[in-house]
Design a protein that fits this description.
Length: about 400
């Protein structure tokens, strides 16, 4: 119940506090806490990126600027995309946003209205579902299949069956948060074809594109790929495709709130209006930091991914060895999303784990259909910190729930 002086839109009134936030609120500030609940690493933004922001600020890059981003940054992002996937990508298709989240919000404002629906592959980062709700739309969840080995698979027939005449878009995050699932190029082709046929949007969230690990057949150093398969690789510029990306994860910039969208050229003008009325453009001096990240950050990204790979492997080796825990080796992103035998209230369990171990995990139920029964652990941390967390977690996870 709220006690506001005047009513809210019902969709806004119905928004729940995220379940991750509920655990976070309970534990934040505790002495000795090992927080592995949110989607970020334990490292601050590297100095070469911070320095670029400071220099730009001192040089007076403190004004309103181009709403789609400074031309140098748009060109650099387009060049990065071309290099990553060996494809063509015009800089006119790139728009710099104040975070991936802000980009997603604007895209949903553009395409979803009351009574419309968006088909979303779940479990998924909960903000996506809330953003659709805020836009007045309805979430149609298509759950990934839980495989016996703890991995995940998308049933394309079920996805097709979820579309109806009010569907405006399909939303898929790959590599996925929380599952680490990676969509194959073949699956992407089928889904993009569905979108073309029906004249609906494919919104591809590729913020974890650089976080791919070996053993999955889809990525990893031994395949020569530098990123997970992207919808950009199989599409033409005028396809109904919007790709969401972020500086948050690969360059440790979660607090900067910077991201970008790659869209059809014909969508850019509409997006420009939405940027104008939402944020009036991304922060001027921060864009120079993003430019440094793109231009000079490849070694840093490689080291970050390798570090996550080591963290993921450690967590996998130790958790998968517990008889009550089921998980597959992570394919991508930086989360262990593991099933715990007998678990039916993951929110209560996350609170219990916090009380008993002072380790912060996210409850699987936060991630929508298919999430309950699981817990999410972010392994973008040093192996020393993860080892300490695992030492504390193992006794609890070994007991019946
Ligand atoms: C799948 C997914 N998309 C988008 C984001 C948000 O990125 P940003 O920090 O740029 O808003 C996250 C953050 O956790 C995420 O997991």
């Amino acid at each position: 119940m709220n006690s506001l002086p005047a009513p809210l839109r019902p969709e806004i009134d119905a928004l729940e506090t995220s379940r991750i936030q509920q655990v976070f609120d309970l534990g934040l500030g505790r002495e000795g806490l090992i927080a592995l609940w949110v989607g970020e690493g334990d490292q601050p933004t590297p100095a070469f990126i911070c320095d670029a922001a400071t220099e730009a600020m001192k040089a007076g890059k403190t004004f309103y600027t181009y709403k789609h981003g400074i031309p140098e940054l748009r060109a650099a992002i387009a060049g990065y995309t071309r290099g990553l996937y060996d494809i063509d990508c015009a800089e006119e298709r790139v728009s710099v946003t104040c975070s991936a989240m802000s980009g997603i919000m604007m895209v949903l404002q553009a395409v979803v209205g009351p009574g419309d629906n968006v088909v979303v592959v779940t479990p998924v980062w909960p903000n996506i579902m809330s953003a659709i709700q805020i836009a007045g739309g309805v979430v149609r969840a298509v759950q990934l299949d839980d495989l016996p080995d703890g991995g995940f698979r998308l049933d394309l027939d079920r996805l097709a069956g979820a579309l109806d005449e009010r569907t405006r878009a399909i939303f898929i995050a790959s590599p996925g948060n929380p599952t680490g699932w990676i969509m194959s190029t073949e699956e992407q082709s089928v889904v993009l074809e569905m979108c073309r046929d029906r004249g609906i949007w494919m919104i591809a969230d590729e913020v974890y594109a650089r976080f791919i690990f070996d053993g999955a057949g889809t990525g990893g150093p031994e395949t020569g790929r530098k990123a997970a398969p992207s919808f950009l690789e199989i599409s033409a510029p005028e396809d109904p495709l919007i790709v969401v990306n972020s500086f948050s994860k690969a360059w440790a910039m979660t607090g900067w709130r910077m991201g970008w969208l790659t869209t059809p050229p014909s969508f850019i003008e509409t997006l420009g209006r939405l940027i104008e009325f939402n944020t009036s453009g991304a922060p001027h001096f921060q864009q120079y930091a993003c430019l440094a990240a793109i231009r000079d950050g490849e070694d840093y990204v490689r080291e970050t991914v390798e570090r996550c790979h080591r963290g993921g492997e450690l967590v996998f080796q130790r958790l998968a060895a517990l008889p009550r825990v089921h998980m597959a080796r992570p394919m991508g992103a930086f989360y262990a999303f593991f099933r715990v035998e007998g678990l039916s209230d993951s929110l209560a369990y996350a609170k219990q784990i916090l009380e008993e171990t002072n380790v912060g995990l996210s409850p699987g139920s936060a991630f929508g259909p298919g999430g309950e029964g699981h817990m999410r652990l972010c392994f973008a941390s040093s192996t020393a910190r993860l080892s300490e967390a695992l030492d504390r977690l193992e006794p609890v996870l070994s007991k019946p729930v």
